[in-house]
Structure prediction request, 219 residues.
Amino acid sequence: MAAAADPTLDELRLILAPQIVDAAAFDGWGKVALENAAEAHGIAPEVAALAYPGGAMDMIATWFECVDAAMIKALPADMLAALPVRERIRRLVAFRLEAVRGKEEAVRRAQAVMAMPQNAARALRLGWRSADAMWRLAGDTASDFNHYTKRALLGGIYATTLAVWVNDKSPGKAASHAFLERRIGDVMRFEKAKARLLSSRDRRFSMARLLGRLRYPAR
Prediction:
């Protein structure tokens, strides 16, 4: 993104984000990466710092935001509508993984920052936001209990697959894609089991009973 003559701070953080990501792989998510990005755009470091008052987590959040925006542009809901739900989810998660190909070290360092106790709550919110964006593109309109379980499950799929992805040395990251397929299959089975229990009129829904069914399926 080219810098405007006098960008707002919100515009500035998006302008600087790609260079910060590249620098973070070597310098971490901190002052050095920010200064390198600012220098690349001819922006004073003290001005660039104002765009990220929350420091490293603001930089990481902006990166997530950029990936969300790219995903929405590349895979709009109307393009996905003709596909089975499973395939919609697979394509959305796969797009996010491909978006960080070659930036694995920046991802590792971001994961380390997000794992810090003081950042845990915000890290969860970032994961939830991305899961919500994926489900909306997949056509989900649930507003009840399903709204929350779907996003929690998809957030878990994305986080665990990303952790596998950054360490995957297999050709074409084939191991990661296979892992993703298995995790999506698990969720599809979960959703089917949940639907069966919720459709039962003579029993109230029990999460404990559902999880028990998944662990010890009926023969």
